[in-house]
Amino acid sequence: MIPALLLVTSAILFRILVGFFGPIDAVGWMNFTPLAAIALCGAAYFPTRYKLTIPMVSLFLSDVALNVFHYHASMGSPFVISHYVGFALIGLLGWSLQNRASLKTLLPASIAASLIFYFVTNCISWLYEPSYPKTFAGFVQAQSVGLPVYNGATPAWMFLRNSLLGDLLFTALFVACMNFGRKTSRHAGAALPRVA
User: How confident is the model at residue 161 (pLDDT cuts 50, 70, 90)?
Assistant: First the structure.
């Protein structure tokens, strides 16, 4: 579990550093984060008491660093809360895969995670953004545009693309770290003498 915790710590730092020092353009690295992979894989691999707490604490710590100190955004906004709902759902998806967690099951699940996050956050945009009519057409528009603050510069599918790429990459890294940790612990255990 130590390699996974190191990856989680590195992932939080990655999100914070990209937020503070990443490109200023709207597309850049937006939504290319490790958090969905942490929620998915953490729930699949971590011991029961850490399955959802480590991913949610990771999100909270990076949100405080970015939203409070950098973007000066409210932590209680419906848009921020939608992130927690999305990551909790992704965590539940990972939890459902805990007995068969592997690259073969988690990579497709990471695609589902990207779609879950996209759908949840854009539904909140539709519900809370006054510029969207509360009709089916407004719902479809929200799914394609997302937050209007990015309208004209970045369609929502670009955020989805970045989410897909980030989720696939960080899920593969997480699984690799877990496999590496298991192999090294087996080798270390084999080298130790048995105690009677």
Answer: very high
